User: Which sequence fits this backbone?
C-alpha cells in the first residue's frame, strides 16, 4: 500500500510546535554538518590561512621593538588576539554561501514547499552551523598560538573570549545571511566576502595598535567591529579580566571592556532586526 | 467535490502573461493532466498551487482552504515534484529522504518504515545509499517522487514527471502513478508529452497561452471531434452488393455513424465509432451474419487533434514557435527566492 491518505491523526507526526521547530532545525543543521564532513576543505582553509599569517607576521616583526605594543611581550602574542577574531570573522562572513547555493540550485524551494513550523529554522540552522565552525577554527588558532608560546588565557579569560567571539559571529552571520538573500548570485556574494575580508582586518587593531596609525586610519579602526572584539580578547590574554579597564583610546574618547561588549551586542541585535523584514519577505 | 479550484488566475512576468485568466477544477481522487506546449504556463500554475508563487490576481482553493492564505495547511497536504529536480549532491538518497521526513515532522518509526516502503516500490535499493551527485536523471526523479510521497500527501503535484527519462524509470513512475490513482490521492501532473497525459489521466485540461482551451475526460474530448475513425473490409476485394449489405447491417449498431462505402478502396467501409465497445459489438454482429473481417483499422483522434481543433496548430508547431524565444537561465534567476 503506497498511500492511505487519511487524515494526519495517525500518530505519524509530532504535532507540538516546539518539537516541530526542533526537528526541522536539527535536520537542517545535520545536513550542513554532513556537507562539512564530506567536504572539509573549507574548514581547514579557514584555519590554515590565519595560521600562516600568524607564523609569517610574527616572524616578520619578530625584531620590532615590543615596548610600544601595549602589554605584550612579543609581536606574536599581540597578533594572536587579532587573528583569533579574524578567523571567527571570516568564518562567519561565509555564512551566506550555503543559503545562496540553495537559492540558486532550487533546494530552497524544497524547504519552502514543506510545511515548516517556522521558516526561522532555515536561519537557525545556518547560525548554529557557522557558529560552531567559526568557534572551532578560532579555538584551533588559540591552541596553536599557545603551542608557539604566545600564552593561554585564564578560565575567566576563556569565558570572555567565547562570549566576545559569539557576539561577533552572530552579527557577521546575520549580515552575511542578509546579503545571501539580497544579492543575485554566489559570484556577487563571494566578491563581497573577498573584498571585505582584508581591508576590515587591516583597518582594525589586529596587526597594530591605534597609536601606530595615522589619524584617519585610527578613526576607522576605532569604529571597526573587529576592534571591539579584539581588544577584550587581548585583555583576556594579558591582564586579569576586568571589563572596567579602558581598552581602546579612540579619537572620540575612551572605550572600556563593558562598552566593547555592549557595542557588539547592539550591533548583533540591530543587524538581526535589519534583516528580519528581508528574510520575512524572501521566506514568506 | 473538487480538490483544487483555480479561479481567474493571472500572473505576468514583466510583459509576458504567463497565466491569463486560468480556471481549473480538479476532482478529488482524480489523476488530472495539464497538457500544453512549452511556455503555456503549466509550471507557473503548479508553483502557485504549491504556495511557491503568488498570482497577481485570482483565487486558489485546495481541499476547501484558501491556499493563498492558509499556506501551511496547504503545504501539509501536498507533495511537489518540481520540473527541475533540486537535490543535495552531497547527501545520499536515503539521507535526503530522512531530511525530507523531518521537514514534514514525521515521527522516527513511521519515517523509517515509509522510506523502506518507497525504496522498495520505486526500485531504488541498489543505489539509494550512494551520493545524489552521481545519480542519473531518472534516478533523481524517482528519488524526488519518493520524497514527494513520503508524508502520504492527499495531493501530489508533478511537473513533467517523465520528460527525458530512461525507459525503466518511466515505467516505474507510470506504474506507481497508476497505483496511486486507485487510491484516493489526487494527482495533478503537467506534461507536453501526449502519450503520458493520455495514458494516465482521468481528466485533462489543455492549456495554451495561460488559459484553459479545452478540458474533460480525454475520451470525451476526442469524441467531441466525432469519434474514432474505422476502416473495415470484409474481403480483400469486395463487391458493391456485399458492401451494401454490410453497410445496412452496421449502420444500425449503436454508436456507429457516418458509414460510407469507399468504392476506390475495394469497397471498404468507413465510419465513425463512439467508443471501443462499439467495435467488439460490431465484430459480434458480423460473425453472426457470417461475414469475415479481412481488415479493420482503427484510428483514434489523438489529443493532438483536440489541440489542433482548438488552436489551429499542432502541439509540435506550437513548441517550435516558442523555442528559442525563452531565456531559461534568466527565468531561473528571476524565480530565485
Ligand atoms: N521567472 C520567470 N521570469 C520571466 N518569465 C518567466 C518566468 N517563468 C516563466 N516565465 C514565462 O512565463 C511563461 C510560462 O512559463 P511556464 O514555465 O509556466 O511554462 P510551462 O508551460 O511550464 O513550460 P514548459 O513546458 O517549458 O515547462 C513562459 O512564456 C515563460 O517564458
Ligand atoms: Mg514547465
Assistant:
Amino acid at each position: 500500500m503506497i498511500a492511505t491518505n487519511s487524515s494526519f491523526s495517525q500518530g505519524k507526526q509530532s504535532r507540538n510546535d516546539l518539537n516541530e521547530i526542533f526537528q526541522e532545525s536539527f535536520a537542517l543543521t545535520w545536513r550542513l554538518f554532513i556537507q562539512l564532513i564530506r567536504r572539509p576543505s573549507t574548514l581547514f582553509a579557514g584555519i590554515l590561512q590565519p595560521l600562516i599569517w600568524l607564523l609569517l607576521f610574527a616572524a616578520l616583526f619578530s625584531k620590532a621593538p615590543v615596548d610600544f605594543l601595549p602589554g605584550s611581550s612579543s609581536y606574536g602574542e599581540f597578533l594572536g588576539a587579532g587573528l583569533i577574531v579574524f578567523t571567527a570573522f571570516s568564518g562567519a562572513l561565509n555564512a551566506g554561501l550555503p543559503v545562496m547555493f540553495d537559492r540558486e540550485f532550487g533546494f530552497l524551494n524544497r524547504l519552502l514547499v514543506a510545511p515548516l513550523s517556522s521558516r526561522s529554522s532555515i536561519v537557525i540552522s545556518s547560525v548554529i552551523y557557522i557558529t560552531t565552525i567559526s568557534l572551532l577554527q578560532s579555538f584551533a588558532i588559540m591552541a596553536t598560538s599557545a603551542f608557539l608560546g604566545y600564552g593561554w588565557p585564564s578560565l575567566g579569560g576563556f569565558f570572555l573570549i567565547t562570549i566576545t567571539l559569539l557576539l561577533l559571529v552572530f552579527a557577521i552571520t546575520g549580515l552575511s545571511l542578509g546579503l545571501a538573500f539580497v544579492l543575485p548570485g554566489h559570484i556577487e556574494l563571494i566578491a563581497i566576502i573577498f573584498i571585505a575580508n582584508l581591508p576590515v582586518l587591516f583597518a582594525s587593531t589586529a596587526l597594530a595598535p591605534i597609536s601606530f596609525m595615522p589619524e584617519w586610519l585610527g578613526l576607522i579602526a576605532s569604529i571597526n567591529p573587529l576592534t571591539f572584539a579584539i581588544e577584550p580578547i587581548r585583555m583576556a590574554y594579558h591582564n586579569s579580566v576586568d571589563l572596567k579597564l579602558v581598552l581602546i583610546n579612540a579619537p572620540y574618547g575612551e572605550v572600556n571592556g563593558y562598552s566593547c561588549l555592549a557595542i557588539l551586542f547592539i550591533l548583533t541585535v540591530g543587524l538581526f532586526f535589519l534583516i528580519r523584514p528581508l528574510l520575512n519577505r524572501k521566506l514568506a | 467535490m473538487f480538490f483544487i479550484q483555480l479561479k481567474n488566475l493571472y500572473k505576468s512576468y514583466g510583459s509576458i502573461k504567463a497565466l491569463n485568466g486560468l480556471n481549473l477544477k480538479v476532482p478529488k481522487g482524480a489523476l488530472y493532466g495539464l497538457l500544453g506546449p512549452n511556455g503555456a504556463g503549466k509550471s507557473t500554475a503548479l508553483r502557485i498551487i504549491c504556495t511557491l508563487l503568488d498570482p497577481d490576481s485570482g483565487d486558489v482553493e485546495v481541499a476547501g482552504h484558501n491556499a493563498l492564505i492558509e499556506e501551511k495547511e496547504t503545504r501539509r497536504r501536498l507533495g511537489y515534484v518540481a520540473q527541475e529536480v533540486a537535490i543535495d549532491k552531497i547527501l545520499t538518497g536515503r539521507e535526503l529522504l530522512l531530511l525530507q521526513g523531518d521537514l514534514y515532522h514525521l515521527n522516527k518509526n513511521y519515517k523509517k518504515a515509509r522510506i523502506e516502503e518507497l525504496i522498495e516500490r520505486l526500485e531504488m535499493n541498489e543505489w539509494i545509499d550512494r551520493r545524489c551527485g552521481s545519480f542519473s536523471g531518472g534516478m533523481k526523479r524517482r528519488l524526488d517522487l519518493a520524497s514527494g510521497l513520503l508524508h502520504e500527501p492527499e495531493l501530489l503535484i508533478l511537473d513533467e514527471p517523465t520528460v527525458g527519462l530512461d525507459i525503466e524509470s518511466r515505467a516505474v513512475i507510470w506504474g506507481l502513478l497508476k497505483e496511486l490513482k486507485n487510491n484516493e490521492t489526487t494527482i495533478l501532473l503537467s506534461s507536453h508529452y501526449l502519450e503520458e497525459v493520455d495514458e494516465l489521466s482521468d481528466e485533462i485540461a489543455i492549456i495554451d497561452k495561460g488559459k484553459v482551451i479545452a478540458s474533460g475526460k480525454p475520451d470525451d474530448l476526442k469524441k467531441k471531434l466525432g469519434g474514432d475513425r474505422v476502416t473495415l473490409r470484409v474481403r480483400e476485394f469486395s463487391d458493391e452488393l456485399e458492401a451494401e449489405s454490410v453497410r445496412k447491417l452496421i449502420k444500425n449498431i449503436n454508436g456507429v455513424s457516418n458509414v460510407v462505402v469507399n468504392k476506390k478502396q475495394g469497397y471498404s467501409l468507413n465510419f465513425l465509432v463512439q467508443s471501443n465497445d462499439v467495435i467488439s459489438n460490431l465484430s459480434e454482429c458480423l460473425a453472426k451474419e457470417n461475414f469475415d473481417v479481412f481488415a479493420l483499422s482503427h484510428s483514434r483522434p489523438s489529443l493532438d487533434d483536440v489541440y489542433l481543433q482548438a488552436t489551429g496548430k499542432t502541439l509540435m508547431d506550437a513548441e517550435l514557435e516558442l523555442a528559442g524565444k525563452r531565456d531559461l537561465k534568466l527565468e531561473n534567476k528571476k524565480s530565485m527566492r
Chain A has one domain: 18-282.
